[in-house]
Amino acid sequence: MAVRLFFAGLIVLLVFLGCGGGGGGGGGSGSGLLPGGSPVVVSGTISGAIAIDQAVSALRPDISSFSPSLRFLDSFVMIEELPNVSTRADQDGKFVFENVPFGTYRIIARVTSLAGRVYKLRTTAQSLTQADAQKTVLITVTQPDLAENQIRMLIKDLNGNPVGKCKIWFWGEQFTLDASGHYVSPYMPAGASGLIKVEPPADKNLSGLEFNISATTFNPANVEIVGITLPTAGITNKAPIVSITTGKYPEGGSAFLRLFGNYSDPEGEPMTTSWLTNVSTFTYIARDYADWAVPSISASVTVYFSASEDGKYYPRLTSLANLNINVASSGEVSFPGEILLRPVTRSVDIIGSSTSQIAGNTLTSYEAKPNFPPGLQLYYNWTVSRGTLVSSATASIISWRSPTLSAGDIQIASIAVAVTDGIGTATKNIQVRITSVPTVTINQPAATAFEPGLIVFTGVARDYLNTAISPDSMSWYVATDTQPFVLGQTGGATFSWQFLAQGSYTVALAAFDR
Q1: Which of 59, 73, 348, 508 gets the highest tally of CB atoms within 10 A of its CB?
Q2: Looking at residue 121, what DSSP letter applies?
Q3: What's the count of helices (H) and strands (E) in the chain, helices before strands?
């Protein structure tokens, strides 16, 4: 399918007038006449064909109305540098652009496969010259050309106000404006690069902007938010181009989210950068990346990255991009490009041998067992309402001595710890009852010397209220003059032990006041 550019005739007309003659031209190449009648070629032809890779053509629906020779459902081919020049390939995949002025061009193709998927490609630069006025390009549609990635863009004026109704072109297609004020790109293949053209609305006195994006911008694994500033018309200085990038699927449970800031200046001026957030803080900030701390509570977060010129051109301009983050225990992403994170768990428990009850004037230890995300240093702070803290209050393990009691006295001590990683804090408090030690009595036998054989012992125990302690809370132990105490029986007010040989034995009864 041939496309002839109508301005070729105008070029020829000007050449003829300049030579004092008149006439027209046509065909595959535009031309004029030099003095003496020698032709001068001023335009050429770009032709090509679209081929479909086997992996793409294999995704062919079983539709009887499709001809076996059908290669694709639709195609659109254009010249990037001449956005008004476009065509469609025929069913053999062939296309032609005729009378293209000499210059350097890239061909962009948008192809809809038989499966209804859209693929997009951009060729390498093709130069038309008098010496090489005919160019042929082969466009092969492959699986990586599948267009399924988007970026978002924020456009503001010098006062920081959002600018709506802009026309933004990339690969011959326009961005759209969503409800949140972001311009959303057309779907593009991973690695798409090229020139973005921004045209401000006619009713705004603003300058337009053109800038190139790299092949890393459309990345299926990332979220990319671009920010630009359009200066007032008449200001020749161009503002920086900035963006925030982060992984589309952050690691769950991490203490921080790494964000990357990308920035460039059209005039190549030096720049300074800045990071801000309305929730939490940053655990680390560099010029081009920052680690944002994930909180332990649900929050609606906006992180800002800006770059400001610091060079010789005035006014010095700043551009800003911002990323929205939802920290929520449940929910879905509410609009494209938003990051959804779960709150980070931060908790602590207190362990020890006396977490519920302890005797008076007794030394014991407690340990804080934190459950925090890795990567940050933890800080401890212990407080006690009674007794004496005999070790550091800022260690993970403390030693504490309970207060001395009077007979029949009962006290309650509060033992508390707060743990923080500088981002969030977890606390734990236990109430410890301080009482007198239970009294234990072994009732029989009264004698101290026995022949070897079975001996039966009975015992009783009473708590600090003089209430009998349940036999289930008793334990019996036996020791010899050469062996330490071993557990003989758990539970029971009666204990039997078979003494096999003569010797010195010790029988002990322990009672636990629950």
Answers
A1: 348
A2: E
A3: 2, 42
The structure tokens listed for 63 are: 């539709």
As a whole number of angstroms, the distance between CA 197 and CA 169 comes to 5
Question: Other C-beta atoms within 10 Å of 394: how many?
Answer: 10
CA quadruple 7, 11, 13, 17: dihedral, nearest 10: 150
The full DSSP string for 336-392 is: TT-EEEPPPP-EEEEEES-SSEEETT-EEEEEEEEE--TTS--EEEEEESSSEE-S-
Beta-sheet strand order (sheet of 494-499): 439-444, 453-462, 494-499
**C-alpha closest to that of 227 among 342, 306, 126, 140:** 306
Closest to 271 measured CA to CA, from 303, 237, 246: 237
CATH of span 347-435? 2.60.40.10
Condensed to tens digits (0 to 9), the pLDDT of residues 207-235 reads: 999 999 999 999 999 999 999 999 999 99
For residues 368 and 429, is the Cβ–Cβ distance under 8 A?
no
**Mean pLDDT calculated for residue range 65-90:** 82
- Check residue 10 and give its pLDDT: 36
Distance of CA 311 to the CA centre of its chain: 33
Cα R_g (the chain), whole angstroms: 41
The answer on pLDDT for 336 being more than 60 is no
Q: Which CATH class is domain 439-511?
A: mainly beta
Backbone torsions φ then ψ of 41, nearest 5 degrees = -85, 130
**82-to-103, 108, 199 alpha-carbon distances in Å:** 11, 11, 16
Name the band, by pLDDT with cuts 50, 70 and 90, for residue 430. very high
Tokens of 164: 């709506």
Sign of the dihedral defined by the CA atoms of residues 58, 63, 68, 73, in that order: negative
Report domain 43-145's class.
mainly beta
Domain with CATH 2.60.40.10 in the chain: 347-435
Do 188 and 215 touch, CB atoms closer than 8 A?
no
Please report the beta strands in 202-316, taking only residues with DSSP state E, as ranges in sequence order: 209-213, 222-229, 241-247, 256-264, 271-277, 282-285, 289-293, 299-309
- Indicate if the alpha-carbon torsion angle 38, 41, 45, 46 is positive or negative: positive
Under 8 Å between Cβ of 76 and 110: yes
Non-local (6+) Cβ contacts of 482 within 8 A are none
In what order do the strands lie in the sheet containing 43-52?
2-4, 94-101, 43-52, 134-141
d(CA 248, CA 151): 12
Task: In whole angstroms, give the CA distance from residue 41 to residue 32.
Answer: 6
User: Whole-angstrom Cα distance, residue 225 to residue 203?
Assistant: 26
